[in-house]
Structure formats: C-alpha cells, structure tokens
Amino acid sequence: MPYLVECLASVEAQTIGPARMEVIAVDDGSTDGTGECLEEFAARAPMSVTVIRQENSGGPSGPRNVGLGKATGRYVFFLDADDRLGPEALERMVAMADKNGTDVVLGKVEGVNRSAPKSMWGKTLDRADVFTSNIKFTLSAQKLFRRSLLEQHGMRFDESLFTGEDALFTLEAYLRADGVSVVADYTCYYLVGRDDGKQVTKTGSYTLRFDSARALMKLIADMVPAGEKRDLLMVRPFLITLLPQFGPKFLTDSEEVRRHKFELAKPLMDAYWTPGVARRLKVNERLRLHLVAMQQPELLLDVVKFVKAKKQAAAVLEKRGTRLYLIYPHFRSRKAGIPDEIYLADPREARAFLGYREAAANSVPRRALRKARRILRRVLPGKGFGAAAA
Predict the structure, then answer these.
(1) 323-327 and 314-318 beta bridge pairing
(2) How far apart are CA 71 and CA 78, in angstroms?
C-alpha cells in the first residue's frame, strides 16, 4: 500500500476482459492494510479472484510459488504489487503467444521514477532468440509464461535466494521455451519506483548478490555446453550481478569486506571466466574482472578510482590504426604484468576514436582485390578497372 490500489485498478482495466482472467493475490504477511484491500477487491471485482493470506516468507519466491500452484489458466503473468499494467497488456501478449505458438512473451517495460531495461525494445519480434538478441538482459519475472511449459519442467522460483530468483526462473524459461516473443510497440508494464526506495533489488547484503551470480552461472553451465553460446549468456551475470561489487562501492568497503568479496568471487572466476566472456566486455569491465580473477585487489583499486572519476582513457593506435588500446591504469606495466589484450578495445568501443580503422579493411578478400587491380594495370596499361560490391 498505497501502490496496490493502482496495481489492482490496472488489472480491472485490462481489455482482455474479466471472463478470460483469474487473479491470485498472495498477501505475504503485510501489515499495512494490504490484506483488507485485497479482500475488498475480491468481493467487487468482475473476474475470478482468490486471496491467500500467509505469514511473511521473507522474499518474493514463496508467494509466487503459492500463486503458481493455484493457477489454472493457459498463461501466467507475475505482477508485483507496486507496479501496474498497460490497459492492453494481457490482450496483446496473449495474442502474440497464440499467434506464434511461443512459450514466453516479453511486453515493453517503462520505468516510473526508476530506470527500466531498454536495449530489447527496438522492434516487435514474433520470435526472438536468447543468444542473438538482448532479451537476456531482462530477466525479471514480469513476463507472460505458458503454464504448460512451467508444469512440464516443474519450474518454480528458488526460495533459497533473496534476490535474483527471478533471473534464474526467467532464463531457464527462455532456454526451455519453444520460442520467445517481444511486444515492443506498446508499453505493457510500468515499473514503479517506490518513494521509500525499498525495492527488494536495492536491499540486502552484498553476499546475496554473489549467491545470485553463483546460481545463475551454474544454471547456464548446466543447460548450455561450453563454447560461444555459453560465453554469450555468461556475460549477463558477470556484467550485471558480479561487476557492480567491484565498482565505486568497493572503494568505501572495509578491508575485510574487500577480502571477502575476492574470496566469494574466486570460485566463480575459476569456473566460468573465459576469454570468450572477456572479449565481449568493454575494456574497463574486462580489466576489473581480470584483476578479480588474478586476485589483485591493490591493482583493482587504482582502476576503480579511475573509473569512478569518469575519466576518458587515452588511446594508443597500432597496426596501422587497426588495433586500439585504451590506457587504463597499469597498461604495459612490467610490475603489474597485465596482458595487452586486456586493454584492447573491440570495434564497437574503438569506433569512437579518431584514426581507428576496422581490421576488415585489410581482410584477405580486399587484399586479393587490390592485387588483381595491380596485375590488370600491368597487363592492360592505360585501362581503367573497377569493381562493384553487393
């Protein structure tokens, strides 16, 4: 409360119609009048409403599992009590799933007084792939799931996790699904920032983040064979869950906490940090995680200070401008011994720097074309020679 009032109003306003909806509301030991509000809603709402009241479980996994156990519809959608739906959300998402036979549908999310994921809403997609799209960067539970998929695989939220339980559940659904759809041309979900700032994702000990990263990395390793596809997915827990533990906050951590973070990170780095993951990151991200992997907290402090200051790293261009290194702390320091490759910018990052040329300019086909031109000029002096590229 009071966010629940608008949340329930958005449910009543759904254009899919009350006959096609069932609401299962789990009051997880609230003490602010939530239970009474739900009972009142159930008494007057035009759709089927079941209210379950229970002792506080300490996290969202338990209540979601209780609700999922009661669900009877073809699809389920997990709606948090402080958020709300766009009026056409359920109608559009169900239509998308029915049209394409897909098991998961992502509806566009918009933040209200808080940030929301953006990179996956560029285009509505009948079928998206977790390996070639950005859907892996939205792993919250606020998706439409085909219930038969969840029942077939016995999928439930991990009640041992206080945070990150939704990422585990959603990524497993992506990987098991017979297709994922994206509704990007209509805002289906409004992610509301609470005035008191007490979103679950913003609270809790740093150790919970390591628990979340560990669980997600293990899921990926269990479900995806080692190689390019696994590396692609591993980027998400390394970048979103693990790396922030070695950001600006690290500078204010006590020596004991810093040491503990390195201890918690070591088995994860040993098991899952690969060159394939590293090369998909920006230089400052790759450098920080490399130093975590190498267990070098003192060198990491210098890098974090540099990143926190928001300085633009200088660039060194080599190999006729086709290799660009960003000069973060300890670049080519013999004492530090960090390989040059850690500082090598990939084309996406390097393109912002004047003088950089992508290596493709010197590719084998282009070199062969230049050689052919030289030969023809010698054979046919004075004749022009041109080539068209498709």
Answers:
(1) antiparallel
(2) 11
Q: Find tokens 């449910």 and name the residue.
A: 11
Q: Exposure pattern of 106-145 as b/e (b: 16+ CB <10 Å)? A: bbbbeeeeeebbeebbeeebeebebeebbbbebbbbbbbb
Is the pLDDT confidence value at 220 over 80? yes
Whether 179 and 103 have beta carbons less than 8 Å apart is answered as yes
Class of residue 287 by CB neighbours under 10 A (exposed 0-12, middle 13-18, buried 19+): buried
pLDDT in tens, 162-218: 889 999 999 999 999 999 999 999 999 999 987 765 554 455 689 999 999 999 999
CA distances in angstroms from 208 to 65, 105, 276, listed in the order given = 20, 28, 26
* Structural element, H or E, at residue 270: helix 255-272
Find out whether 364 and 379 touch, Cβ atoms under 8 Å. Answer: no
Query: Is pLDDT of 119 > 70?
Result: yes
Give CA–CA dist 7/190, Å, rounded: 10
- Residue 145's closest CA among 236, 233, 68? 68
22-28 and 48-54: which strand pairing? parallel
Query: What is the rounded distance in angstroms from the CA atom of residue 172 to the CA atom of residue 58?
Result: 23
Are the C-beta atoms of residues 68 and 165 closer than 8 Å to each other? no
Provide the pLDDT for residue 158: 94
Q: Say how many C-beta atoms besides its own lie within 10 A of residue 26's C-beta.
A: 23
Q: How far apart are CA 238 and CA 248, in angstroms?
A: 16
Average pLDDT taken over every residue of the chain: 91
Segment 22-58, tens digit of pLDDT: 999 999 898 888 899 999 999 999 999 999 999 988 8
